[in-house]
From TrEMBL:
Its EC number is 2.1.1.107. GO terms for molecular function: uroporphyrin-III C-methyltransferase activity. It is an enzyme of class 2 (transferase). PROSITE patterns: SUMT_2 (PS00840). The keyword S-adenosyl-L-methionine applies. This is uroporphyrinogen-III C-methyltransferase. Pfam families: TP_methylase. The keyword Methyltransferase applies.
């Protein structure tokens, strides 16, 4: 396809592919996802999918919006799943296009199980999740050997629309050196309060990354104690991912987008040069 040196997987009529479009930048779409867009008869896409990705679809492809955004009129999950089954039974090649990765807080598992129950063949095409790709575009690694050997990904927005009750925030505050929270801006005050109650340091660095990896990306660096007030003052709006932990300090040396715009980077923001040079 278009002279690529590899054979991309072929879509078959009656199949549904659940494809992750990545964190925002259209260039981060996978080759398998691009191939699916070229082949699909019908695409059902989410709100956070970049228009430039939709523009990759074949000339014959039907694009159908099924976006879901918190606090706004949105398609119901059961209706989306039913639509996928309906189109597959019409022998269409169906692409369900989702932001990030379908299986990382993307409800792709629910949709796939609906397809299983209906006897529909499906394929999963992973995408770069915002909790990894979005942080990379902000110059923040999710792991670094001088700061953390573990990272926890959580959602700040449960099925009820509130902070998830199933997360032990106090235990998380004590056990996880780096926490990456999706869909957390609405409940940031409650989340930071629970983390502080669990023993998180008030001055621990926090970064809020909005419109991650797009030309509209904005990054706010703050602390656990100041995060809610600073976000309110800044006027930043979702979608956003929030990261808690010492890895945020590395942005001073790894903000590669900032460097392209003229920012002078720090060579050793953690003050650990002597450790790794002699280790």
């Amino acid at each position: 396809m278009h002279g690529l040196p590899i054979d991309l997987p072929q879509m078959q009529p009656g199949w549904v592919w659940l494809v992750g479009s990545g964190p925002g930048d259209a260039a981060l779409m996978t080759l398998a996802g691009y191939g699916a867009l070229q082949q699909a008869d019908h695409v059902i896409y989410d709100a956070l999918v970049d228009q430039r990705i939709l523009d990759m679809a074949g000339a014959h492809t039907v694009l159908e919006y099924a976006g879901k955004r918190g606090g706004r009129p949105s398609a119901k999950q059961v209706d989306i799943s039913y639509r996928l089954v309906q189109l597959a039974r019409e022998n269409k090649r169906v692409l369900r296009l989702k932001g990030g990765d379908p299986f990382v807080f993307g409800r792709g598992g629910e949709e796939a199980l609906s397809l299983v129950q209906a006897g529909i063949q499906f394929r999963i095409v992973p995408g770069i999740s915002a909790g990894i790709g979005g942080l990379a575009y902000a110059g923040i690694p999710v792991t670094h050997r001088e700061t953390n050997s573990a990272v926890t990904f959580v959602t700040g927005h449960g099925t009820t629309g509130e902070v998830p009750d199933g997360i032990d925030w106090h235990a998380l505050a004590k056990s996880s050196p780096v926490i990456v929270a999706y869909m957390a801006m609405k409940h940031l005050h409650q989340i930071t309060t629970r983390l502080l109650e669990g023993g998180r340091r008030p001055d621990e660095p926090v970064a809020v990354i909005c419109q991650a990896s797009t030309s509209s990306q904005q990054v706010l660096e703050t602390t656990v104690a100041r995060a809610h007030a600073d976000v309110q003052e800044s006027g930043l709006q979702p979608p956003a991912v929030v990261v808690f932990g010492e890895v945020v300090r590395l942005r001073a040396g790894l903000d590669w987008l900032g460097a392209m715009a003229g920012r002078v980077l720090e060579g050793d923001p953690l003050g650990t040069r002597s450790k790794w040079e002699t280790g």
